[in-house]
């Protein structure tokens, strides 16, 4: 595992574009979260400090930071599809196989890299959430502090799921641009199917079916927190109630997709004549 991961990291280090995108994918969400906690004066008209709005209170902070950080996953998705695209365009895949690397090890090296960077990103978000929470939250009891820390695990699984999907699309398409195009097509496809089922049946049934689709299942791991923030400000408004918690079945669905995508990527590569 360490050998395969080292091989892949060396390739990324030698690629300037990958280094820039990796830096952006880690630093940008960090900057946005930190800047949002700073008091901003809008030309003297009003002052905005999101931290004072209660969004960084425990346990809400886990939900907010993981949701917004996950929005920046697209930058590393470009790195993932580029890892595959560059192997084909530079013909390094064929050379690696000649040098003794099996096709299984090739796919695993990419997957280990995905896990590695997802883990680093998760650890960063864990510490940032703790710091912001302790700065702004009026609660410091451990029971409250770690009440919804499962959002961090959901964030980790969500990253692995999304990047595994990108890995599969990269192997399928061989080109980064085509892989990203397929990603967008799948997004449209999921909503078109949802619309057709809603039209023929009802929204509730359509939503149940859609929850098993790749991108939607990953989205379900961390639902939008805006409605929850509004709930905290207007607790008497029952129309704002919604289920924002992370459910065990959401983990299972995404993990099954991860296994499916990695296996399918391996099967495609195994059958492909290089």
State the gist of this model.
This protein has 13 helices and two strands, in the order ααββααααααααααα.
Shape annotation: globular
State the helical fraction: over 70%
Q: Largest sheet at a glance? A: 2 strands, antiparallel
Overall domain count: 1
Number of beta strands: 2
Query: Which segments are poorly predicted (pLDDT under 50) over 5 or more consecutive residues?
Result: none
Content of β-strand: under 5%
How far do the termini sit from each other? Answer: 24 Å
Radius of gyration: 21 Å
Tally of alpha and pi helices: 13
Structural class: mainly alpha
Strands ordered across the widest β-sheet: 1-2
Mean pLDDT: 84
What does this molecule look like?
By secondary structure, the chain is mainly alpha-helical. It has one domain (2-26, 48-271). The chain has helices at residues 2-13, 16-36, 60-70, 73-89, 92-98, 103-136, 142-145, 150-173, 176-200, 203-210, 214-221, 226-233, 248-271, and strands at residues 40-42, 46-48. The chain has a two-stranded antiparallel ribbon. Strand 1 (40-42) and strand 2 form a beta hairpin. Helix 2 runs parallel beside helix 6 (103-136) and helix 8 (150-173) packs antiparallel against helix 11 (214-221). The radius of gyration is 21 Å and the shape is globular.
């Amino acid at each position: 595992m360490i050998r395969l991961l080292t091989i892949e990291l060396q390739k990324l280090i030698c690629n300037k574009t990958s280094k820039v995108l990796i830096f952006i994918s880690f630093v940008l969400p960090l900057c946005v979260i930190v800047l949002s906690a700073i008091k901003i004066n809008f030309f003297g008209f009003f002052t905005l400090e999101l931290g004072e709005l209660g969004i960084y209170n425990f346990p809400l902070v886990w939900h907010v930071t993981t949701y917004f950080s996950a929005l920046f996953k697209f930058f590393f998705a470009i790195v993932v599809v580029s890892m595959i695209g560059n192997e084909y365009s530079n013909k390094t895949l064929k050379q690696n196989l000649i040098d003794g690397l099996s096709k299984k090890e090739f796919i695993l090296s990419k997957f280990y890299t995905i896990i590695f960077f997802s883990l680093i990103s998760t650890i960063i978000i864990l510490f940032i959430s703790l710091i912001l929470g302790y700065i702004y939250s009026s609660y410091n009891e451990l029971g409250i502090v770690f009440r919804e820390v499962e959002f961090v695990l959901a964030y980790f699984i969500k990253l692995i799921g999304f990047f595994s999907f990108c890995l599969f699309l990269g192997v399928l398409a061989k080109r980064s641009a085509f892989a990203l195009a397929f990603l967008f097509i799948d997004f449209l496809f999921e909503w078109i199917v949802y619309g057709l089922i809603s039209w023929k049946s009802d929204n509730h049934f359509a939503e149940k079916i859609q929850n098993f689709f790749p991108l939607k299942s990953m989205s379900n791991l961390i639902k939008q927190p805006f409605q929850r923030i509004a709930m905290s400000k207007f607790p008497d408004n029952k129309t704002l109630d919604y289920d924002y918690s992370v459910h065990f079945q959401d983990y299972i669905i995404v993990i099954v997709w991860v296994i499916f995508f990695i296996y399918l990527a391996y099967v495609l590569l195994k059958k492909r004549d290089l």
